[in-house]
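Two folds, back to back.
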Amino acid sequence: MKMALRSILGNKGRSILTMLGIIIGIASVMTIVSVVNGQNQQSLKQFEAMGTNRISVSLSLYDGRDCFQDLYNYCNGLGSDLVVGVTPSGMASATIVYGTKNSNAMQKNQENMFNESGAVRTDVELPPDLYYGSDQYAVCNNYKLEKGRDLSFLDIRQHSQVCVLGARAARNFFGYSDPLGKDLSVNGYPFKVVGVYAEKDPDSAFSQDNVIIFPYTASRLLSPGQSISDFVVKAASREATDEAITRLNGLIQKCFQGYDDFDFNVVTHAVNDFCVVDMSNFYLDIIKDRLYCEEKDGAKRRSAQTALFLILDTMTKIMAPILAFTCDEIWQSMPHRADDDGRNVVFNEMNKPFTDYALDDKAMEKWAVVEKLRDDVNAVLEAARAQKKIGKALEAHVALHAADSETASVLMQVADLNLAELFIVSDCQISNADVAAGSVSGTGTSYPGLTVEVSEAKGEKCERCWMHSTRVGEDADHPTLCPRCAAVVAKLPQF
């Protein structure tokens, strides 16, 4: 120790330079880590703004004909409890001019888009991103109108020369004047502004607010001969976490047996059935409300996240022997537990069944009843939608009536569950009353003694979770929210 001190004091210049190098090195590392973390947070924010239930679809015809209409009709025919929107996602290329404002000139401003501190300058006019869309572009991309109207189905059919602006694009071209009804010159063609979207991410370098949306049929003017092949489909409770994990256990056991028998076809079929039947058609459908609307760190939301992690972790390991490269790519991008080997997925043993979460046979029979009831309820919801009694499933009140003791016994098995959440409606009750006049009813297929009654849900629509409730507005600070959403929003950071 004394020798070290003497050496430091005897070579003060060298010691100072060494210390300075260490300090600069540590500061550089800390700066890089901070920047990377900041970029990660910003990217996450952008993905959350777009929505996590979007499905990208690539579809084209050999002869180059428009295939969007077929996709549009198909997706809308699935019902709003499965699909809430479908739209092209192709980009357009054009010069936008309004008065003295020109998108080509704005291109040069990208060199000065950041201030001295590295933050995005909101006063710089940047060229907008141009997209082709349908009347469902806004719902697919989580935009809300601030003024005017959105693209309509007639705009698409009639090849109307109209457009909708993002908040930043409107500000860049029109300042603080009202853009509605004014014409933008787009490659020399006049396009009337019919709407403006509300601001989404004002602080982003590549803002989702700096966009202009055209009817996809306008491609005949802006990109003659272009075939649009990229589309976005947006898919529409207390979640059945334990049931999902129990079904996952069944998948694990079936796949283990398939590998032991060198019957890889059994493994691939089991995984496919699990993804389509158990996950997509049931579990993923009913947990959306919990993931989107519950408190961020609340027990309900975290339980769903835990189930999703266990499912992803298990399926990645199970499929690794068959899809080695794909599964390892997933493995490198996902979080891990402390005892995982992060180098490669094949260095990790496949998960054993999660017995701590598993349901017994009696409990699984209960969930089998829920699935059968859900099929019967969905059939009557579709009938009510066809008769224009309701629009979306969340506009519905469902009543379940038992005509015999056997059906009544079945309904009592599930009476303790939140059936409204499982059926994705605003309200669901087991009722002894007669079917109300003016409602839509149907007889159950799985349970002939069951009558499903659908009517319009009472109360107002919560603008956050979209459920209808007579309790919307009870919280004076959040008059447009239901009590659940008001409680969650109250815990969010206030700016």
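---
second:
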Amino acid sequence: MENIVNAVNNVVWSNWLVYLCLGAGIYFSLRTKFSQIRNLKEMVHLLFAGEKSEEGISSFQGFCTALAGRIGTGNIAGVATAIAWGGPGALFWMWAIAFLGAGSAFAESTLGQLYKEKHDGQYCGGPAYYIEKGFGKKGWAKAYGMLFAIVTVISIGVLLPGVQSNSIAAAVNNAFGVNVTITGVALVILVGVVIFGGIKRIGSAAEFIVPFMGGAYILMAVIIIIVNIGYLPHVIALIFKSAFGAEATFGGILGSTIAWGVKRGVYSNEAGQGTGPQASSAAEVSHPAKQGFVQAFSVYVDTLFVCSATGFMILMTDNYTTFNADGSVLYNAGTAYTVDQIGPAYTQGAVNTLINGFGAAFVAIALFFFAFTTLMAYYYIAEVNVNYIIKRLTGKGNVMATHVLKVVLLGMTFYGAVKTSDLAWAMGDIGVGLMAWLNIIAILALSNIAMKCFKDYERQLKEGKASEDITFDPVSLGIKNADFWENLNAGKVE
């Protein structure tokens, strides 16, 4: 069974998926004339100027909820893995895919807002919704949307929570000696309190935790950079030289450098994978493009800030070993690591150079908060898709189904904390990979609709309208099935 799963995983997460993610980013960047640069000021402005209502969360809460799903163990272990197999230059390619991926993030989150619905007094949407409505509610489009929803519930709601909780439990046990069972019970209680409160409580928790922990983590990186400031020019030069094979030590693994940088960048920022639109659809905004801009900025925060923090801490303290594809050592920067040690140990060692013995504790706490917020985001994403499935099959919502989902997710959270499951990791990767395939193909096919929203927003900005005064009318743009916005403009209550 495990061999079959691994074989399927290798097919799903082949280089073709990496090329698809990269190609989609380039495509949307070109079509928006590199909006991720031109509209950077607007992104930041919208982040803090968003509306809020009884039905929807604020733009900042939507940003934090989406970021909660993006910032996880990948920001610590993922960066270390990229450096271990691709060398220092892999960090550059993580930056590159984040820059380009911001274009894909804009498109998918704009579409999420465009085709959102209101269920039980709260906004919800995502790929399943815009796949069905964007393609004209045809039979095959409904089946496509249903397939995405089912894949998402299985991967995000069942298989992946255990992976995050296992990282938390292992890190806490290593740093403080706390039994994994105790950590598992504590996680179930904490996550349960949040998810039983719905998206507004999830948004409120993310609004507090994400900036706090993300800021603390970046601050630690800044301190380490300052302490080792004389080494900074060398590290920056090493990153860029290694990225293009100009550094003799890493020139022989240029292919791995690019591949691992792109793969880990995509895995970390999730641009185009269909997770961000779920949270962005819950936000209260006056124009769909607003959340597109906000979510594009979240990709920057994840990779350019948090992943860079990890990368600079590791590289500036020489706490890494780079390996050849066969597992043999290519280069020991200072501390010699084995293949089995690839992951948080790199970051722990880096922090230990500042305060000996502090690294394990700090990284454990960071992992706890990062993975905890990821679990919150996982639940919300799964809930949106469960509601989609139930409503499409029965015509109405089902509270019992969401309660069952809560119990299952909490159960998988505890299971993951007390027992490592390589099979669950592989199956979860398959689910997430399938989500990416299904979603990216969809947003490319619906790109003209996303661009109509983008051009409409930019047109109103050029007319001198303040972002708070910008409105949206899908009918005037020739966009069909945007029922929420049509009803809103008509003054109708859904």
